[in-house]
Amino acid sequence: MRCIIILMVFFSFNEIHSQCLEAPSVHFGGSKVEWSIGTIDTFVKSPCYKYIVPKEMLFHLADPIEINDKVIYPLINTKYGTVLQGINHLNGKLEWAKFYNQTTEDGYGHNYYLDIVKKSDLSFNIYGTRYPIKTNLPINTSYGGHLIKREVFTNSGETVKLNVLDTITITHLDSRKYHKNGEHNIFYQCNYLGDNHPSGNNFYCADYDANFDQNIIRRLHTDSLFFNTRDSDGYPNFLRTDGPFTYGDSLFVYLSQYIQDGVRKQFLWSVDNEGNLSQLKDISTSIHGINKNTYFIKTKKSGDDILLTTVTPDDSYEGNYGYVVLNKNGIVTKSNNGIVIDGKKAGFIAVTKHTRTNEFIFATRPQGQNDIYFYRETIDGAYIESAHLINQNRSVYALQPYNLLQTSDDGIVLTGSFVLDTFKLGNISPFQVGGWPVIMKLSAETLGLPTATSDPWQQPVTFSIAPNPSTNQITITTSEALSNSRIEIYDQIGRSVTSRRILSTATEIDISSLPTGLYFVSLVDDLGKRFGQVQKLVKIE
Q: What is the rounded distance in angstroms from the CA atom of residue 421 to the CA atom of residue 431?
């Protein structure tokens, strides 16, 4: 029955739409964006499959990192290969882009989705899988794969060295990262042993030479882990495993998750530097609390903690997003599932912890909306809206936040993807297709965040607007007298429509000539930098 429904959706969708979509614009109105880049794969000429798989589609499977003022941004085109970019985070200049595809290197597709590891300011390693491409099939398909490591120059993107472990084919590689064993070996956490375990998945650690010049040294380490993922009716459910999250040289933590008979199950387990199991803990109740349907969709290391992006299903197609923080022992140190702000449920979110303030910062697209909001969650649990990005595309193009990266100048880089999520076929919930990635940066000043040269405990300048909504005149009152500053009012596409110099703590502005609608009010210094919190103004008749 499940397969029939999927096929019905596929054919109905193709009947409705007959041409491929173009990639959307990445220009946003509202709060100031320092720079933004939309990325498409122009190298691979893959078919578009009539909306289901746009021809220029790329996916996020590894988080970007910053090395020597460059954001290293990895994306993959399914089985066809990897797009790797080096972007100067200070000015948004795309300094280099490399394409590791089947047409460039010996008929293989190279997907680097496991991890990016900095070696020095000069180079970094990326890890993944090399897939042989079957060209005799109607649709290019890959089978198996070889483990690969590529060292790349930071300033140019040129390859220093490519290592391929081609003495063995890996058909199931579940965990998307690796960890070292001393100075010589790399563990890969792999998928189930085989079909001899029909009731579930049996995990093990496999050991390889770090230079990829030897075959497997040893395959199975002590006790393997067995997860019974089948329902009582025999249906085999999907098992997801994230990690490892590395703690020193001897502790590597994993998270596993699956559904059994309608109940979400989540486990934390770890291995030592010899691949031996050191703990296995059921953390289901700790993660989802009283709502047994809550589950995690993304995980990342945050300092010494593990940060989980969570979803609580509801009557919307997005679900209600939030986050949970775990320590290495599986103890929840912070639970914030199902975020609701001003009556709006958080839809898709990206979250990080600011290293200077210890505040959690997240970007969200609230349920039923198409704009992106940035929030700071203070230590005492209050939400402060620090930015609002207005999506100027048609509502069919919706941006899903994916990851937040704090840069060395304390700005925030957001990555995400435009997807189509407004289609509804019969009684089937709207579904998401697409995959046009975008990366952008907002400054610390725009977000009201401290920097290395500012006082981290300095209270941001606040102001009030009265009356709001308003017809003719407003008074903007600031918390303190400001010099060398002005008030700017912007329309929804980011154009300044009114400007007034601040001469006292109360500034009157005539808005009678403005058309009715939504506007944004900001404080701006003489250098053109916005500061304080951006506020909304509603003009009425």
A: 5
92: region left, alpha or beta (phi > 0 left; psi from -120 to 50 alpha): left
- Type and span of the H or E element at 16: helix 2-16
Which are the contacts of 403, defined by CB distance < 8 A and separation ≥ 6? 60, 63, 64, 300, 350, 352, 414, 415, 416
At 16, the pLDDT band (50, 70, 90 cuts) reads very low
Residue 63 has pLDDT above 80, yes or no: yes
Chain-centroid distance of CA 4 in Å reads: 31
Q: Which of 39-53, 296-310, 381-395, 419-433 has the highest mean pLDDT?
A: 296-310
Q: How many Cβ atoms sit within 10 Å of the Cβ of residue 172?
A: 12
List phi, psi (to 5°) of 15: -70, -35
Flag whether pLDDT at 499 surpasses 80: yes
| CA gap 95, 67 in Å, rounded | 13
**In this structure, are residues 444 and 409 in contact, taking their beta carbons and an 8 Å threshold?**
yes
The count of C-alpha atoms lying within 13 angstroms of the C-alpha of 202, restricted to the half-sphere facing its C-beta, is 12
Residues with Cβ within 8 Å of residue 422, at least 6 apart in sequence: 395, 396, 398, 430
Give Cα separations from 306 to 150, 194, 242, 309, 396 (angstroms): 27, 30, 11, 10, 34
Query: Domains of the chain, with CATH numbers?
Result: 20-56+339-458 (no CATH), 463-539 (2.60.40.1220)
Beta carbons of 375 and 409 less than 8 angstroms apart: no
Would you say 207 and 182 are in contact if contact means Cβ atoms under 8 Å apart? no
CA dist 209 and 219 (Å) reads 12
Q: What is the pTM of this model?
A: 0.77
Q: What is the DSSP string of 440-483?
A: EEE-HHHHT---TTS-TTPPPP-EEEESSSBSSEEEEEESS--S
